[in-house]
Amino acid sequence: MAPAAESSAAATRRKSGEIAVPDPRSGEEAEEGESSAARFSPEEEATLLSQSHTEKLEANELFKSAQYSQAISVYDRALASVPNYLEYEIAVLKSNVAACHLKLVDWKAAVDEATKSLEALDRLDGPPPSTSSPSNKKDERDAEASGRNGAGKEGDDDGVVELADDDGDEGEALEKLQKDDRRKDDIRRIRIKALMRRARARTEQGGWGNLQGALEDYNLLSSPPLSPHLSPPDTATVRTALSTLPPRISAAKEKEMGEMMGKLKELGNGILKPFGLSTESFKFEKDEGTGGYSVGMK
Predict the structure, then answer these.
(1) DSSP one-letter string for 77-100
(2) Among 76, 186, 243, 282, whose Cα sits 20 to 30 Å from the Cα of 251?
């Protein structure tokens, strides 16, 4: 993201020498001895987030009034105000920008922005488990069995959490647990939005690779831990996509393979022509098992 103008408070302190670290959002390199993980002070961070929030609200209103290009510009200003280590805030704004590009029918830009949103969430919370791995499917079955047969056992994340005996510590621990749960819910909600937006954009783009990517996104959405939290309309969209995408992927693959073979034949004819031969002198046989081709003389 492009660096924004430095906040007046940060600029004043930086010029007066009260802080010695570079702006984490800028391309400045840290001086020797300075931390590469420089952060703003809590006060500066709060100021930057407040500025970003104000701009995000303005962009939201532009989106509601169908001024999508203007909304993108204001979302970009909001992003420029966010310190680059606040991954959740970045993910939210990137997902919103993706929504604008969907409205503008700019599928590639929508895919790019939704992907950046998901990458920020992955850095914050880790990616959801892949649905394509047999071991992951076994893990899901084991987790379901554990939930039926041993819910609440020691070590289970969803089991009873023991709090400290001290009343003050117990209150603080409970408050932290509640805050962590809310953040997990927020991360999951934004992940669902970003995946839905990227999947739609990939579907609209078409082509073998894009359709396959859309199917992978919908597979993630159709599996735990995301599937129980889909809205009814999103659930219907995912189910429809999972049934309609496979034949579209097969057709797109066949078309692209045919086009590739056509180009290879043109290249081959150019090479063989000086020898009085052409690709018509050879036969191409498709292996239905692998989808590949073998070549032999006629």
Answers:
(1) HHHHHS-TT-HHHHHHHHHHHHHH
(2) 282
